[in-house]
Amino acid sequence: MATTPAAAEGAAILNTLGDFTSRENWDKFFALRGTGDSFEWYAEWEDLEAPLLSLLQGCGAAAAAEGGKGKGPEILVPGCGSSVLSEQLYDAGFRRVTNVDFSRVLIADMLRRHARVRPEMRWRVMDMTDMQGGLDALMEPEAGTQLGMKYLNESKRVLKPGGKFACLTLAESHVLALLLSAFRFGWEMSIQAIGNGSSKKSAFQTFMVVMVKGKTGVVHPIQSLLDQSAKFCNTKQANDVIHSLEKENTIRESYSSGGDVILSLRDLQLGAVGDLKVIIPGRRRMFILGEQGNSLYCYKAVLLDARKRTETFVYHCGVFIVPKARAHEWLFASEEGQWHVVESAKTARLIMVFLDSRHANADMDIIQNDLSPLVKDLEPGNPEEEARIPFMMAGDGVKQREILQEVTSEITGPMVVEDVVYENSDGDQSSMPEKRYRRLVFKRNSGLVQSEALLVRDSTSDKADEKNQKLPSASKKRRNQKKGSSGSKTVLRIDHSYLGSSYHSSIISGLSLIASALDSAVGSGTKVSTTVIGLGAGSLPMFLRVCLPFLNIQVVELDPLVEELAKKFFGFSTDEQLQVHLGDGIKFIEDVAVANNGATTQLNSNGNENNAVKVLIVDVDSSDVSSGLSCPHANFVDDSFLLATKKFLAEGGLFIINLVSRSSTVREMVVSRLKVAFEHLYSLHLEEDLNEVLFATPSERCLDINNMDEAVSKLKAMLKFPVDVESDVKKLQKLQ
Question: What pLDDT shows up at residue 275?
């Protein structure tokens, strides 16, 4: 029977090991312990016997069907160490046991002990990342998940359908997270607690997680066999495990509900949509390519396996890049259109990759180099050696481009103002006038199109032309000579009723959350204080001024050159209702919060006091894209700024922030901080972009959360320009 070391001896053992992944350390460990000794890390045989034998009895019928009648199932014990587990299983009648460990010292000792008395039991010196050791030993937090994932992949490989993988673990958060995600698709999972009545060696609870290999791609809920009335369930360790299982089952339910869940590349590699090495005609699935640390960018993509097998395929796999300007077109946005692209590309499998605002004007060589290693994992079959995956691309959608000005700011860096005409995606409208757009591009962030405005014919120029028609012939001749040989020159202006960014529309729609408070302000003649941090080309504040004339708008912009470009090229102007403050937006909010000490009392048009509602909008990009946070700058989601924002709004107001992050970890960090600072938090995620607009408020005093239909109607009645509020509000979710 295994011996239980004293506390001092246990400490000495751990000091001997140091690095649990080192072969040399384990050889030294077993040499110091001597021959003929046994050691159990987590549980004694008396505690494991009942659950293990129950598990293995279910394998008897399968083993007989495979021709193993009378011998029981094949059992592999990776990282066997000097445990008595294998000999107990052998003596219980399970003879086909193979033990694997990468310590030669240990295997030599075990062979001497068991070769005669248990001749059918096998012992192998083997690396369990090609068969290495127990999962917990490979998953020291500072070492990362690479060895652990390699071990699990090898374990999955050697099991046949119906095979079972039983893992004894303390279920630490980083270990359990890897287990649950690695066996999410195509495996049945259960977890139970192992009794520790015969051993007092550890204050921690041991768990047995069992995975049964099933049909690829099928998602099963995890079966919890934990007795939540047991004493150990009151511990933090058990509570963390129970919480992790609940969270994982929620994720699994979303995958199995039939919704069009966007998967990650790793989900696909784990079998979420079946075997990637096989072409499954008609298979189509959206997913995300790339993640922080593994690629420069992250990309929305669609995997498409040709609907019909044909001998005319030119490529076994290809990549088709769709620029942001064309992503909305039927050919790329609709499922039917995408199948047309597959047929035209003559590929057995097509990976359609959609670029967004972060990739605008980026060097396509960089994009292709970034994508190449990612899509390599999606190749079907066994392609020929050195076969390259071809890259195809739709045009960038810009039919005509005119650079108006290129400048470099010490604050923002290089900027470009340009007029563009997009290619006409609707062939049946070729007789319609071409629309021209003016764009402000920040080159520091991979050519980010910071603002886009619609150019329209200036009605004042039309009146001038009408006046010209009434002039005497000589006067008309002189006037035409001034205009040049081309005749009447069209004068264009910015259409401030047009919102070029869909997330701007979402910001407007989100005001439904405080529609009653806004309506009350309008009724009492109170101007609603609205602060916008980040001017850009001025599109959003100009739209707000005209569309919601009861707003008193203050814009805070750090770069004077940005304001100059907005005024010169985008028709931005200030007045009593719309003012610009040049300076640091964070300091501006902090100073106002301190000066007002959170006071929001204002006078209405009748001189009466009102509990005013405030709106704060943060719409700035980050110059440090390496952080995984493209918008806003990290300082705008720092705890100190969020606290100042809460004081700034006091009890009446709405904090709106445009969030763009390609890292789920960063996004969760931002959301977590907002939840701590604010009582209520809502999210509106844009399907076609990576933008997510977050709405936070310190209290529910101004919220219209009980009757959003009525709130939408109130907001629409206040808007001077049409905005599709209903569609946006349907996507609005409360973050718990």
Answer: 84
